[in-house]
């Protein structure tokens, strides 16, 4: 069995955070967090865990490292949260470094292991609470810390300025009007049926997704709008850092920007973690029993448009495709059947990965791991050999991936394992196949 201490990776955020720690501070923060936030649930998990190891087969890190027990979910919980509880926070700063590396970079919070535990222990939740402690100790990988700071300062994760956001939308509207002369990206339209929100990487470096969404809304005759003001970024890396105060600020800003426009529903673009932040963690932190404005994922939205006959395609996609089931949308929210309805409508041949649906392996990017940046890229690549094998076994070239993080993770795996495959968003395929006006 390997040990986390033998695979420490240098990261300036973790190093500078640990350098400023004292054992007294660690003890104080751990005690305060366990007493004030979530101690009872964690104690129930710790006391009921039978150390049976059945969760091990749930974890892609464990399977990809030839069943090394160090990567087993129960070991991750034992070496981090359970140790902090047993020792009442009396651990060294170096031990906090090891725990932070394990929690931020060797667990995607994907919750697959919870399905394999006979009593449903959710190691993803336990590791998220280890991150919460590390955040309160200011021991956070530098890249994701910077992203969270961007959220806190600008209300979006990419330091996009307010005027750049509006410029990007107008630029995409302008571009798209060459192809669709009547197209508009309506800003701040009060009372619209749909408020469309995206994650900040879209205006920053994936603007074609905004173009495509606008083309689809336009062709389907949707009454929609996008906000000109902060709140437009639905992503939430603060959730994965453990900065719940800013996670709450972000979610409130997102809802309030929609409420201000009195829209009927929010449709989120193709992202998994952003969706989790509204249906799960952000909502609970804010104490919402129900969403203040109904929110649906793009899969749901495209499914509705297809069923209402509002998406018209000229032909089906010819190449065989396979489907990535993003954990936050499928395991977390149950959209597996709707995803298949949409993909089968668009594509001639679908070759399923094995396993699939709620049993699918995470892409290893999620839970903020890809956002921990280049120092930890190899951790993701070696930690997800099983995903590469699963992808390769389909024998197809195209992977339909309705999640931004999965895109990043799977494209990296494709490159690292030389799979010669390519990822596509649903909107890439709809845009490619949809009827377009003759201009
Ligand atoms: S990566 Fe997923 S399966 Fe592995 S421990 Fe974390 S939540 Fe469980
Ligand atoms: S399967 Fe559940 S009970 Fe068994 S070791 Fe894993 S977390 Fe503990
Ligand atoms: S990036 Fe995709 S597969 Fe990975 S945790 Fe997120 S939703 Fe799951």
Please give a structural write-up.
With 439 residues, this protein is mainly alpha-helical. The protein is 52% helix and 5% strand. The chain is built from 20 helices and seven strands. The chain has helices at 12-19, 23-48, 60-64, 73-86, 93-105, 112-116, 123-136, 142-154, 162-177, 201-205, 207-220, 237-241, 244-260, 273-286, 298-307, 336-346, 377-382, 385-394, 404-416, 426-433, and strands at residues 194-197, 224-225, 265-268, 295-297, 321-323, 398-400, 422-424. The strands form two sheets. It has a four-stranded parallel sheet with strand order 2-1-3-4. Strands 5-6-7 form a three-stranded parallel sheet. α2 (23-48) crosses α4 (73-86), α5 (93-105) crosses α7 (123-136) and α9 packs across α11 (207-220). It is globular. The model has no long low-confidence stretch (mean pLDDT 97). Residues 108, 110, 272-273, 326-328, 362-363, 365-367, 403, 405-406, 409 line the site of one iron/sulfur cluster. One iron/sulfur cluster binds at residues 108, 110, 272-273, 326-328, 362-363, 365-367, 403, 405-406, 409.
